[in-house]
Design brief:
By secondary structure, the protein is mainly alpha-helical. 77% of the residues lie in helices and 0% in strands. The chain has 6 helices and no strands. α2 packs antiparallel against α4 and α5 runs antiparallel to α6. It is elongated, with a radius of gyration of 21 Å.
């Protein structure tokens, strides 16, 4: 089930509190990261050095912690900013729908909802949209930079 639907269902059943929202977001955001980590482990178990370690009689636990986990952390680290971007967009979506942060706390989703209610007041929606889009874009650039820095397959050495 997609994360936003789970967030909507759970947040509508519980009291609206900023801490509860962060807990719900953390409880539902691990699924994408776990699937990505599983895919990395499944890809890594067929690599030659893992087969060689298995042929030498190294235990499964040692193979997992010495070989698979360190080599799987690079894609996970580079995936993290994109996961944060999804969390920001999920919180903004919940706030826009009225299921997010309670009223005394300002939020981008609430500002977007007010701008949607007052379409003639462009001074509400344009800065909010610019802030949201620049935040998402900058987090995406951070993810791309981490991928370029940590990915061993993308060598930038000059020939």
């Amino acid at each position: 089930m997609p994360q936003l639907y789970l967030l909507m269902i759970i947040s509508s059943m519980l009291a609206r509190n900023i801490y509860v929202l962060f807990i719900i977001l953390n409880l539902t955001s691990w699924m994408g990261m776990a699937a990505y980590m599983r895919a990395e482990f499944l890809r890594g178990r067929n690599l030659d050095y893992v087969k060689a370690a298995r042929a030498l009689g190294v235990s499964n636990r040692a193979i997992m912690f010495r070989h698979l986990l360190p080599n799987s952390l690079t894609p996970i680290i580079t995936f993290f900013p994109f996961n944060v971007t999804g969390g920001v967009l999920a919180l903004v979506s919940l706030d826009f729908l009225g299921l997010g942060v309670p009223s005394p706390y300002p939020s981008l989703g609430e500002l977007l909802a007010q701008g949607h209610a007052n379409l003639h007041a462009t001074w509400i929606i344009v800065p909010t949209f610019l802030i949201l889009s620049s935040t998402v874009t900058l987090l995406t650039f951070v993810g791309d930079g981490l991928r370029n820095a940590f990915d061993p397959r993308r060598s930038t050495a000059a020939a």
